[in-house]
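Morning. Coffee machine broken again, so started the prediction first thing and wrote up yesterday's gels while waiting. Chain of 247 residues, entered below exactly as on the submission form.
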Amino acid sequence: MSWYMNKSMGRIAGACGLALALSGCAHDANRSPKELLSLSVSGLSGVDRYAFSGDTAIGAASGTASRPAAFRGTVQHHDQVSVQTEGGADEMPAGVHPLRLLNDVERMAARAEVVPEASNGQRTVLRITADPAKAAKVWSNRLRSEFALLENKVPANSPAASARDDGTRSQAKPSAFREAWDRELDRSRKEFEAMLSTMSVRSTSTLAIDRKKLLPLSLEERTEFRYEANGKPARESRTTRIAFKRP
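Came back before lunch.
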């Protein structure tokens, strides 16, 4: 009888252990992929301090790709972002802000699905497909922000920049340069807006989520742009990868 009881208790204990081991799976098995996406975004917004690193690469229609711009940074007090880019650049690449990027991914999402072959007991991996119209709107805003940064820049070796550094120099040349610079900016702005008006966007993201904490582990966003430039069809791509780390 005692042998039977011990054997039965062993089976019960084993079953309980298995249930506990699978509890993490059951925890997110009851939630849809879109719910998991939403929970990971809201979860990150509630984290007071974390670190991140990654890179952004831009590809042309010819198949050539720019050297990825690497970055790393920290977030404190939920939304105070500090970023360092490779080479000591002081500009944060557009879209790098981790929480804003995740919010955009959620906002654009038309479909989210679990990727079984990439998921395991520790993480759930989602593939998120963006709605083309929403993606075009989000990316138009991102690209306009990038263009606005360019508008505020003056080449370092220009007469205007030299005069800014040396108050004794004549202002005539800087004034002429500034006029030419503004004309070029105006022309570029019109071309840029014409490009945006024809732009279509396809974007997919891969998000790895900690199954226990429901926090993002990594994100990869792949986006393809098709548009017209000077009346000719053009295509570009952009890939941004971010890994999250709690200190």
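Residues 28-245 form a domain with the outer membrane lipoprotein receptor (LolB), chain A fold (CATH 2.50.20). Going to sketch it on the whiteboard this afternoon.
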